[in-house]
Amino acid sequence: WLFVSGRKQIALMADEKPPSRISRRRFATSCSEMGISMGIHMRERKEILDYGMTLPDVYMDAPFHDDNWILLRYKKNKRAFAWTYERNGSVCVNVKVAPEWRDFWRSAYASVLPGYHQNKEHWNTIILDGSIPDDDVKRMVAESYDLIVKKKPPL
């Protein structure tokens, strides 16, 4: 976050609160004036699934007869682009990633890890702990979707 008051600029980490001398209301107003969201970041599977379902020709699938694993697939080739599950008390989502972006996302956020139970070169796991801005989570999901849309159906 960046709080601007006159000539003062105070940079805060995403999980920090503004200093006590700055009211939260004034801080939120300043952030919204600058187009910065004060919302809580994604933490629930429903948020990922709801976002994924807004993409064209997508459906949900539970192929493992295990309610813990819910996948988002592209209808035309049946390929999955988001694997949602709970692990160690957190909701996670695995997304396909272009190799040139894989390390960028992993270094940008501690909650982006090599893909759990998947090819670590082509998949990342996003832990939905609230530390990643919604726009970046959505971008990673959308990029995953874009990567699988071009693929042919599996044999």
What shape does the CA trace take? globular
Q: Residue-averaged pLDDT, rounded?
A: 80
The whole-angstrom Rg is: 18 Å
Helix content: 25-40%
- How would you classify the helix and strand content by structural class? alpha+beta
What's the N-to-C terminus distance?
Answer: 48 Å
Write down the oligomeric state. single chain
Strand content: 25-35%
Low-confidence stretches: 1-38
> How can the largest sheet be summarized?
6 strands, antiparallel
Strand and helix order: EEHHEEEEHEEH
Please tally the helical runs, counting DSSP H or I stretches of 4 or more residues. 4
Spatial strand order of the main sheet: 3-4-5-6-8-7
Number of strands: 8
Key words describing this protein structure:
alpha+beta, 28% helix, 8 strands, six-stranded antiparallel sheet, 4 helices, two-stranded antiparallel sheet, disordered N terminus
